[in-house]
Write a structure and sequence with these properties.
This protein has seven helices and 15 strands. The mean pLDDT is about 95. The radius of gyration is 18 Å and the shape is globular. The protein has one domain: Nitrilase/N-carbamoyl-D-aminoacid amidohydrolase. About 45% of the residues are buried. It is an alpha/beta fold. Strands 6-5-4-3-1-15 form a six-stranded mixed beta sheet. InterPro entries: C-N_Hydrolase, C-N_Hydrolase_sf, UPF0012_CS.
Length: about 260
Amino acid sequence: MRASLIQIAVDEGEPVESRRRRAAALVREQAGADLVVLPELWTTGAFAFDRFASEAEPLEGPTYEAMAKAASDAGVWLHAGSVPERDPEGPLYNTSLLFTPSGELAAAYRKIHRFGFDKGEAVLMGAGHELVTVRLPDTTVGLATCYDLRFPELFRGLVDAGAQTLVLCAGWPERRREHWTLLARARAVEDQAFVLACGTAGTHAGVPQAGHSIVVDPWGEVLAEAGAGEEVLTVDFDPARTEVTREEFPALKDRVLGLAPPRP
């Protein structure tokens, strides 16, 4: 299986529509890949909080339309990163979109863990409540977004729902890049799954981005890692290795759930 992670740079001086066209062109260039992944909030910038409301789109907005066509033109499964979604009956959401090779929407995932504590995304956007997995021809993918990476229980939930490959889009800051690499490898090891984590390059609202998109195998080995700038990271991997790893080292079978709390 071939995956291409498009680590696009977000420059606040570039109009959103220009970046949308550029991202679509980059997707089309990946014809021949099986799965293409874009980063989190690449239309606005993950830290451009003051632009979330003005740049928010309905689910089937301009980014949806551009990415659906790009997926169809390239004939690829496309994780189109995430957009600020404006729900007409609710708050904004940080919503990622997965398209089939014919350009149909296979799934939408609303980010569950919002970053910012008492500011930024945490107060500007609503929280999703549903885990999302999708069956591709060669693997079942589980979807996650950026700050989700710090919460292992979410990924265990995806594994319990059948995920074999964990696909994550992010706008991760440079100052915490070591966490990014460490946590991507940890999620791969503990869940015995491939991790495909795509971040942004550039600077969002004065926050330099980490880049370093990464692909990790179920044993925790890094198969490929990008640098800090804009690039396309392409890697071939065998998704069957997930089940082989789980059979050869069946640690997931030893999970102990429902433990009682400590006695007072």
